[in-house]
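2024-03-11 09:14:02 INFO receiving multi-entity request
2024-03-11 09:14:02 INFO entity count = two
2024-03-11 09:14:03 INFO echoing inputs for audit
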Amino acid sequence: MRKRTLLAVSGTAIALALGVAIAHEADHPAVKARTSIMQLYANNLGPLGAMAKGDMAYDADAASKAANNLALLVQLDQSRLWPQGTDADSISGTRALPAIWQNFPDVAEKGQALAQAVNAMQAAAGADLEALRGAMGAIGKACGDCHETYRAPDQ
Amino acid sequence: MRKRTLLAVSGTAIALALGVAIAHEADHPAVKARTSIMQLYANNLGPLGAMAKGDMAYDADAASKAANNLALLVQLDQSRLWPQGTDADSISGTRALPAIWQNFPDVAEKGQALAQAVNAMQAAAGADLEALRGAMGAIGKACGDCHETYRAPDQ
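2024-03-11 09:21:47 INFO inference complete, emitting structure
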Protein backbone atom coordinates (compact mmCIF):
# COMPACT_ATOMS: atom_id res chain seq x y z
CA MET A 1 0.00 0.00 0.00
CA ARG A 2 2.81 2.40 0.96
CA LYS A 3 4.50 1.79 -2.40
CA ARG A 4 1.27 2.31 -4.33
CA THR A 5 0.67 5.63 -2.54
CA LEU A 6 4.18 6.76 -3.32
CA LEU A 7 3.69 5.82 -6.98
CA ALA A 8 0.43 7.77 -7.09
CA VAL A 9 2.08 10.78 -5.47
CA SER A 10 5.04 10.74 -7.83
CA GLY A 11 2.66 10.31 -10.77
CA THR A 12 0.87 13.47 -9.68
CA ALA A 13 4.19 15.25 -9.19
CA ILE A 14 5.25 14.31 -12.73
CA ALA A 15 1.91 15.46 -14.13
CA LEU A 16 2.23 18.75 -12.27
CA ALA A 17 5.81 19.19 -13.44
CA LEU A 18 4.75 18.52 -17.06
CA GLY A 19 1.85 20.94 -16.67
CA VAL A 20 4.22 23.62 -15.45
CA ALA A 21 6.61 22.90 -18.33
CA ILE A 22 3.82 23.24 -20.91
CA ALA A 23 2.58 26.44 -19.27
CA HIS A 24 6.09 27.88 -19.39
CA GLU A 25 6.38 27.05 -23.08
CA ALA A 26 3.04 28.72 -23.85
CA ASP A 27 4.38 31.69 -21.90
CA HIS A 28 7.50 32.02 -24.06
CA PRO A 29 7.96 35.81 -24.25
CA ALA A 30 8.49 35.79 -28.03
CA VAL A 31 5.31 33.74 -28.59
CA LYS A 32 3.34 35.99 -26.24
CA ALA A 33 4.49 39.08 -28.15
CA ARG A 34 3.74 37.50 -31.57
CA THR A 35 0.29 36.44 -30.36
CA SER A 36 -0.32 39.95 -29.02
CA ILE A 37 0.48 41.53 -32.40
CA MET A 38 -1.85 39.06 -34.19
CA GLN A 39 -4.53 39.78 -31.58
CA LEU A 40 -4.26 43.53 -32.23
CA TYR A 41 -4.37 42.98 -36.02
CA ALA A 42 -7.61 41.02 -35.50
CA ASN A 43 -9.06 43.59 -33.12
CA ASN A 44 -8.63 46.35 -35.71
CA LEU A 45 -9.54 44.27 -38.77
CA GLY A 46 -12.80 43.36 -37.00
CA PRO A 47 -14.69 46.63 -37.54
CA LEU A 48 -13.20 47.14 -41.03
CA GLY A 49 -14.32 43.65 -42.11
CA ALA A 50 -17.74 44.11 -40.53
CA MET A 51 -18.25 47.40 -42.40
CA ALA A 52 -17.04 45.86 -45.68
CA LYS A 53 -19.54 43.00 -45.28
CA GLY A 54 -22.39 45.31 -44.27
CA ASP A 55 -22.62 43.81 -40.77
CA MET A 56 -21.79 47.23 -39.26
CA ALA A 57 -22.83 50.68 -40.48
CA TYR A 58 -19.99 52.51 -42.22
CA ASP A 59 -18.35 55.00 -39.83
CA ALA A 60 -15.52 57.01 -41.40
CA ASP A 61 -14.01 57.97 -38.03
CA ALA A 62 -14.05 54.42 -36.62
CA ALA A 63 -12.70 53.04 -39.92
CA SER A 64 -9.84 55.57 -39.92
CA LYS A 65 -8.93 54.81 -36.31
CA ALA A 66 -8.76 51.06 -37.03
CA ALA A 67 -6.72 51.58 -40.21
CA ASN A 68 -4.34 53.98 -38.42
CA ASN A 69 -3.83 51.39 -35.68
CA LEU A 70 -3.00 48.73 -38.29
CA ALA A 71 -0.54 51.15 -39.92
CA LEU A 72 1.25 51.50 -36.56
CA LEU A 73 1.24 47.75 -35.89
CA VAL A 74 2.82 46.76 -39.22
CA GLN A 75 5.75 49.05 -38.38
CA LEU A 76 6.63 47.14 -35.19
CA ASP A 77 10.13 45.68 -35.33
CA GLN A 78 9.79 41.90 -34.86
CA SER A 79 13.47 41.00 -35.11
CA ARG A 80 13.58 39.68 -31.51
CA LEU A 81 10.31 37.75 -31.84
CA TRP A 82 11.33 34.74 -33.96
CA PRO A 83 14.20 33.01 -32.14
CA GLN A 84 15.12 29.47 -33.19
CA GLY A 85 13.19 26.83 -31.26
CA THR A 86 9.92 28.78 -30.99
CA ASP A 87 8.07 26.86 -33.75
CA ALA A 88 5.02 24.64 -33.25
CA ASP A 89 7.14 21.45 -33.48
CA SER A 90 9.42 22.63 -30.66
CA ILE A 91 7.02 24.22 -28.15
CA SER A 92 3.32 24.40 -27.37
CA GLY A 93 1.24 27.57 -27.54
CA THR A 94 2.15 28.54 -31.11
CA ARG A 95 0.98 27.57 -34.60
CA ALA A 96 4.13 28.97 -36.27
CA LEU A 97 5.41 26.23 -38.62
CA PRO A 98 9.15 25.42 -38.78
CA ALA A 99 9.03 26.44 -42.48
CA ILE A 100 9.17 30.08 -41.31
CA TRP A 101 12.76 29.60 -40.14
CA GLN A 102 13.72 28.04 -43.49
CA ASN A 103 12.20 30.86 -45.55
CA PHE A 104 12.78 34.15 -43.75
CA PRO A 105 13.14 36.19 -47.00
CA ASP A 106 9.75 34.92 -48.21
CA VAL A 107 8.15 35.59 -44.80
CA ALA A 108 9.57 39.15 -44.87
CA GLU A 109 8.20 39.63 -48.42
CA LYS A 110 4.75 38.51 -47.26
CA GLY A 111 5.03 40.90 -44.32
CA GLN A 112 5.82 43.71 -46.77
CA ALA A 113 2.72 42.82 -48.81
CA LEU A 114 0.63 43.20 -45.65
CA ALA A 115 2.26 46.56 -44.84
CA GLN A 116 1.48 47.85 -48.37
CA ALA A 117 -2.13 46.64 -48.17
CA VAL A 118 -2.52 48.30 -44.77
CA ASN A 119 -1.09 51.59 -46.05
CA ALA A 120 -3.63 51.51 -48.91
CA MET A 121 -6.38 50.87 -46.33
CA GLN A 122 -5.16 53.84 -44.27
CA ALA A 123 -5.68 56.08 -47.30
CA ALA A 124 -9.06 54.51 -48.18
CA ALA A 125 -10.82 53.75 -44.88
CA GLY A 126 -11.99 57.29 -44.08
CA ALA A 127 -13.01 58.15 -47.66
CA ASP A 128 -16.14 56.06 -48.15
CA LEU A 129 -17.43 52.49 -47.95
CA GLU A 130 -16.54 51.62 -51.55
CA ALA A 131 -12.92 52.68 -51.02
CA LEU A 132 -12.78 50.66 -47.79
CA ARG A 133 -14.21 47.60 -49.56
CA GLY A 134 -11.69 48.02 -52.39
CA ALA A 135 -8.78 48.01 -49.92
CA MET A 136 -10.01 45.01 -47.94
CA GLY A 137 -9.19 42.36 -50.57
CA ALA A 138 -5.44 42.97 -50.54
CA ILE A 139 -5.35 42.75 -46.73
CA GLY A 140 -7.28 39.47 -46.73
CA LYS A 141 -4.97 38.10 -49.43
CA ALA A 142 -1.83 39.10 -47.48
CA CYS A 143 -3.16 37.45 -44.29
CA GLY A 144 -4.14 34.29 -46.18
CA ASP A 145 -0.91 34.03 -48.20
CA CYS A 146 1.14 33.88 -45.01
CA HIS A 147 -1.23 31.75 -42.91
CA GLU A 148 -1.74 29.10 -45.59
CA THR A 149 1.99 28.49 -45.88
CA TYR A 150 3.34 29.19 -42.43
CA ARG A 151 0.61 28.52 -39.86
CA ALA A 152 -0.45 25.11 -38.54
CA PRO A 153 -4.21 24.32 -38.74
CA ASP A 154 -6.30 25.25 -35.69
CA GLN A 155 -6.88 22.20 -33.49
CA MET B 1 -27.63 5.56 -6.07
CA ARG B 2 -29.30 6.75 -9.25
CA LYS B 3 -30.07 10.11 -7.62
CA ARG B 4 -26.52 10.50 -6.33
CA THR B 5 -25.11 9.82 -9.80
CA LEU B 6 -27.46 12.37 -11.34
CA LEU B 7 -26.41 14.95 -8.74
CA ALA B 8 -22.75 14.26 -9.50
CA VAL B 9 -23.39 14.57 -13.23
CA SER B 10 -25.31 17.84 -12.90
CA GLY B 11 -22.61 19.16 -10.56
CA THR B 12 -20.05 18.47 -13.30
CA ALA B 13 -22.31 20.08 -15.90
CA ILE B 14 -22.64 23.22 -13.75
CA ALA B 15 -18.88 23.34 -13.20
CA LEU B 16 -18.30 22.96 -16.96
CA ALA B 17 -20.87 25.66 -17.73
CA LEU B 18 -19.24 28.02 -15.22
CA GLY B 19 -15.84 27.20 -16.68
CA VAL B 20 -17.07 28.11 -20.15
CA ALA B 21 -18.62 31.36 -18.85
CA ILE B 22 -15.36 32.37 -17.18
CA ALA B 23 -13.39 31.50 -20.30
CA HIS B 24 -15.72 33.64 -22.43
CA GLU B 25 -15.32 36.61 -20.08
CA ALA B 26 -11.54 36.28 -20.14
CA ASP B 27 -11.86 36.24 -23.93
CA HIS B 28 -13.68 39.60 -24.07
CA PRO B 29 -12.22 41.22 -27.19
CA ALA B 30 -11.56 44.55 -25.47
CA VAL B 31 -9.74 42.84 -22.58
CA LYS B 32 -7.71 40.71 -25.01
CA ALA B 33 -6.65 43.82 -26.94
CA ARG B 34 -5.79 45.75 -23.75
CA THR B 35 -3.76 42.80 -22.45
CA SER B 36 -1.99 42.54 -25.81
CA ILE B 37 -0.92 46.19 -25.69
CA MET B 38 0.37 45.77 -22.09
CA GLN B 39 2.17 42.59 -23.18
CA LEU B 40 3.91 44.46 -26.01
CA TYR B 41 4.86 47.32 -23.67
CA ALA B 42 6.46 44.73 -21.36
CA ASN B 43 8.19 42.94 -24.22
CA ASN B 44 9.90 46.16 -25.33
CA LEU B 45 10.55 47.56 -21.85
CA GLY B 46 12.31 44.26 -21.02
CA PRO B 47 15.59 44.87 -22.86
CA LEU B 48 15.62 48.60 -22.00
CA GLY B 49 15.19 47.83 -18.30
CA ALA B 50 17.81 45.05 -18.43
CA MET B 51 20.34 47.41 -20.07
CA ALA B 52 19.58 50.17 -17.54
CA LYS B 53 20.17 47.74 -14.65
CA GLY B 54 23.33 46.32 -16.21
CA ASP B 55 21.79 42.85 -16.65
CA MET B 56 22.27 43.11 -20.44
CA ALA B 57 25.14 44.74 -22.34
CA TYR B 58 24.15 48.11 -23.83
CA ASP B 59 23.27 47.71 -27.53
CA ALA B 60 22.33 50.99 -29.24
CA ASP B 61 20.53 49.24 -32.11
CA ALA B 62 18.48 46.94 -29.88
CA ALA B 63 17.66 49.82 -27.53
CA SER B 64 16.49 52.00 -30.44
CA LYS B 65 14.32 49.22 -31.86
CA ALA B 66 12.63 48.68 -28.49
CA ALA B 67 12.11 52.43 -27.96
CA ASN B 68 10.74 52.86 -31.50
CA ASN B 69 8.28 50.01 -30.86
CA LEU B 70 7.09 51.69 -27.66
CA ALA B 71 6.68 54.97 -29.55
CA LEU B 72 4.38 53.17 -32.03
CA LEU B 73 2.41 51.41 -29.28
CA VAL B 74 1.62 54.58 -27.29
CA GLN B 75 0.02 56.02 -30.45
CA LEU B 76 -2.56 53.21 -30.71
CA ASP B 77 -6.11 54.52 -30.46
CA GLN B 78 -7.74 52.74 -27.50
CA SER B 79 -11.18 54.40 -27.71
CA ARG B 80 -12.92 51.08 -28.45
CA LEU B 81 -11.04 49.17 -25.73
CA TRP B 82 -12.68 50.43 -22.53
CA PRO B 83 -16.41 49.72 -22.84
CA GLN B 84 -18.56 49.87 -19.69
CA GLY B 85 -18.75 46.51 -17.92
CA THR B 86 -15.19 45.40 -18.67
CA ASP B 87 -13.75 46.17 -15.22
CA ALA B 88 -12.43 43.59 -12.74
CA ASP B 89 -15.62 43.76 -10.63
CA SER B 90 -17.79 42.90 -13.66
CA ILE B 91 -15.77 40.22 -15.48
CA SER B 92 -12.83 37.92 -14.92
CA GLY B 93 -9.57 38.07 -16.84
CA THR B 94 -8.82 41.74 -16.15
CA ARG B 95 -7.28 43.74 -13.31
CA ALA B 96 -8.76 47.04 -14.54
CA LEU B 97 -10.43 48.71 -11.52
CA PRO B 98 -13.88 50.35 -11.85
CA ALA B 99 -12.21 53.66 -10.85
CA ILE B 100 -10.95 53.92 -14.45
CA TRP B 101 -14.49 54.51 -15.69
CA GLN B 102 -15.06 57.22 -13.06
CA ASN B 103 -11.84 59.09 -13.91
CA PHE B 104 -11.31 58.95 -17.67
CA PRO B 105 -9.68 62.43 -17.85
CA ASP B 106 -7.11 61.41 -15.21
CA VAL B 107 -6.47 58.09 -16.98
CA ALA B 108 -5.94 59.96 -20.27
CA GLU B 109 -3.53 62.36 -18.54
CA LYS B 110 -1.54 59.43 -17.15
CA GLY B 111 -1.50 57.92 -20.65
CA GLN B 112 -0.10 61.20 -21.98
CA ALA B 113 2.64 61.12 -19.33
CA LEU B 114 3.62 57.67 -20.58
CA ALA B 115 3.63 58.85 -24.21
CA GLN B 116 5.92 61.78 -23.31
CA ALA B 117 8.28 59.54 -21.35
CA VAL B 118 8.40 57.09 -24.28
CA ASN B 119 9.14 59.87 -26.76
CA ALA B 120 12.04 61.00 -24.54
CA MET B 121 13.28 57.39 -24.47
CA GLN B 122 13.07 57.22 -28.27
CA ALA B 123 15.45 60.19 -28.46
CA ALA B 124 17.78 58.79 -25.76
CA ALA B 125 17.91 55.00 -26.24
CA GLY B 126 20.33 54.94 -29.18
CA ALA B 127 22.63 57.67 -27.83
CA ASP B 128 24.37 55.92 -24.94
CA LEU B 129 23.70 53.98 -21.75
CA GLU B 130 23.60 57.08 -19.53
CA ALA B 131 20.93 58.71 -21.71
CA LEU B 132 18.91 55.47 -21.69
CA ARG B 133 19.18 55.28 -17.90
CA GLY B 134 18.11 58.90 -17.58
CA ALA B 135 14.96 58.26 -19.65
CA MET B 136 13.99 55.10 -17.79
CA GLY B 137 12.82 56.76 -14.58
CA ALA B 138 9.98 58.72 -16.18
CA ILE B 139 8.69 55.58 -17.91
CA GLY B 140 8.73 53.60 -14.67
CA LYS B 141 6.97 56.47 -12.88
CA ALA B 142 4.27 56.67 -15.58
CA CYS B 143 3.65 52.89 -15.42
CA GLY B 144 3.54 52.96 -11.61
CA ASP B 145 1.31 56.06 -11.35
CA CYS B 146 -1.40 54.37 -13.40
CA HIS B 147 -1.04 50.83 -12.01
CA GLU B 148 -1.09 51.95 -8.35
CA THR B 149 -4.40 53.75 -8.81
CA TYR B 150 -6.22 51.79 -11.48
CA ARG B 151 -4.99 48.17 -11.40
CA ALA B 152 -6.09 45.49 -8.92
CA PRO B 153 -3.29 43.63 -7.08
CA ASP B 154 -2.01 40.44 -8.73
CA GLN B 155 -3.59 37.38 -7.15
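2024-03-11 09:21:48 INFO post-check: The two ends of chain A are 41 Å apart (CA to CA).
2024-03-11 09:21:48 INFO post-check: Chain A has one domain: 28-150.
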